[in-house]
Design brief:
This protein has two domains: about 240 residues, 3-Layer(aba) Sandwich (Rossmann fold), CATH 3.40.50; about 230 residues, no CATH class. Helices cover about 45% and strands about 10% of the residues. The protein contains 21 helices and 13 strands. A five-stranded parallel sheet has the order 4-7-10-1-11. It has a two-stranded antiparallel sheet with strand order 2-3. A hairpin with a 3-residue loop joins strand 12 and strand 13. Helix 12 crosses helix 14 and helix 19 packs across helix 20. The longest helix has 21 residues. The chain is elongated.
Length: about 500
């Protein structure tokens, strides 16, 4: 059966009973919960924390705010709320504010239904068309959010400026019968925050001093950084009081959750020839975890989940470039590719004073080393690598360039006793392709270096542990700078 295309057909096919958008979301959420249908697709790691609070807010028909640092999927959560809207919503055709055909608000639709009656044309909106999002910035005006007089419209239509037909509706009225999302709420100027009071409390707005009031039906959702959403921040307390639920987001609680999120979001599906070892995924994810607890990095600004996503994409790209140059397959990233991905790391965190003294690149290298050491402990922490260490202590060295062919790396690794025997712990067998063997062998060497059991330098490669690494020298330099600062003070 085709959808009704006029108001008369719509009357005959439905009771015309009105429910608010928040009641609509509640109804659909209850249905999903009853049938066990998945909620908020693509959002991982929040099943036991954020999602239950979000469900409670929707069931309570609250306007809500998500508080969290950057890269915590706040915007994705807000956009996923459209999955709780009906598949199709009837509106007066051509209406700027998606008027209900049975109860039109705007002057244009009231005149149209009065003139044409049951022949009033009806159109339909999909859920995504009922979602309006705005990034709050200090230059946002009341006209942007609520609306203003449009003199050009008045002139072209021959209307008096006092006529409702001269209104230009802002984003909020255009979200009527839908969801209005405002990102970074505290960045909105104070006078604009005041302008949101009525819609949150009474559900209506008044445009530019017009006597007419629009009783809007909108679910309002916001995001903010917790640091700004305080009495000391930039939020007006009466506005804060009118928001029904405050929901805290967070970064992944476990490495497994982080790996799953990065695997979902990172663009690594570049054909059947790309194979990313699990231990390497954990190294990349471990960099983000290490950065979030590092005192040289500003925790208030956070370390976005985009860091491991961008890093993994860069790691695969470097491995892909090497494989093309060396004409080898499959494409298997190595630890050296993680170091090559430093440009995707250094812009993702803000440094404290100590970190600025060292420099972003050195901090990034230190984070990689820490992440490799932790992954090495998980996979190979109980293995006795004394023969490998003895090889380097006896004067042996191994120079592996990041662009070395996999076959050449494997030949060099065979010189070191005690490596080949433990590759199976990394899911690699002796008969596997050379790129897999090279990646696993380099991970073992880098892990031993991260735990300071062997040394490494840019000139000589892996060697005896007596030689100081660049990172160690940087730490010494930082300690000297601290002492100099104390003396000056």
């Amino acid at each position: 059966m085709s959808e009704p295309r006029t108001l008369g057909e719509l009357k005959r096919s439905t009771s015309g009973t009105k429910i608010s958008v928040r009641e609509e979301m509640r109804k659909n959420l209850l249905r999903k919960l009853a049938t066990g249908e998945g909620l908020f697709p693509g959002v991982l790691g929040y099943d036991d924390s954020v999602v239950p609070q979000l469900v409670n807010a929707v069931l309570s028909k609250h306007n809500m705010i998500l508080l969290g640092l950057r890269g915590q999927a706040k915007s994705r959560l807000l956009r996923s709320l459209t999955t709780l809207l009906d598949p199709r919503l009837p509106v007066v055709a051509g209406c700027e504010i998606h008027d209900d055909p049975f109860r039109p608000l705007c002057k244009r639709c009231r005149d149209l239904t009065s003139e044409r009656g049951d022949e009033t044309p009806v159109a339909y909106l999909a859920p995504d068309e009922r979602y309006v999002e705005k990034l709050a910035t200090p230059d946002v005006t009341i006209a942007d959010i609520i609306g203003d007089v449009d003199p050009i419209r008045a002139a072209r239509g021959g209307h008096d400026l006092a006529s409702e037909l001269t209104m230009h509706y802002g984003l909020l009225p255009r979200a009527h019968r839908g969801i209005f999302a405002l990102n970074e709420l505290p960045d909105l100027a104070g006078r604009i925050q005041v302008g949101l009071f009525n819609i949150l409390q009474e559900g209506d707005v008044q445009i530019k001093g017009y006597p007419v009031r629009l009783s809007l039906d909108v679910c309002m959702v916001f995001t903010a950084n917790p640091e700004d959403y305080t009495a000391r921040g930039k939020i007006i307390t009466p506005l804060k009081d009118r928001i029904g639920s405050e929901i805290r987001t967070h970064y992944p609680n476990t490495l497994e959750q982080g790996v799953a999120i990065t695997q979902q979001e990172a663009w690594t599906a570049r054909g059947d020839g790309v194979r990313i070892p699990r231990y390497l995924r954990e190294v990349v994810e471990g960099i983000a975890f290490a950065a979030r607890r590092d005192k040289k990095i500003d925790r208030r600004s956070g370390v976005s989940q985009r860091l491991p996503i961008s890093a993994l994409e860069n790691v695969v790209s470097n491995a892909e470039r090497r494989a093309l140059l060396q004409k080898e397959s499959p494409v298997v990233p190595r630890i050296s590719d993680v170091y090559a991905a430093l440009p995707s790391l250094t812009g993702k965190f803000e440094l404290e004073y100590e970190g600025e003294l060292m420099g972003a690149e050195h901090v990034g290298r230190e984070l990689i080393r820490e992440a490799v050491g932790e992954a090495f402990s998980v996979y190979l922490g109980s293995v006795n690598f004394r023969p490998v260490i003895a090889f380097f202590e006896g004067g042996g060295s191994l120079k592996i360039r990041d662009d070395s062919p996999a076959g050449e790396v494997v030949v060099q690794l065979e010189r070191v006793p005690g490596i080949q025997e433990h590759l199976s712990l990394l899911g690699v067998e002796p008969g596997d392709p050379a790129p897999l063997l090279a990646s696993a062998g380099e991970f073992i060497l880098e892990g031993l270096y991260a735990q300071k059991k062997i040394g490494r330098s840019d000139d000589r490669g892996f060697m005896a542990p007596e030689r100081r690494s660049d990172v160690d020298m940087d730490l010494d330099r930082l300690e000297r700078l601290r002492k100099m600062k104390k003396q000056v003070n």
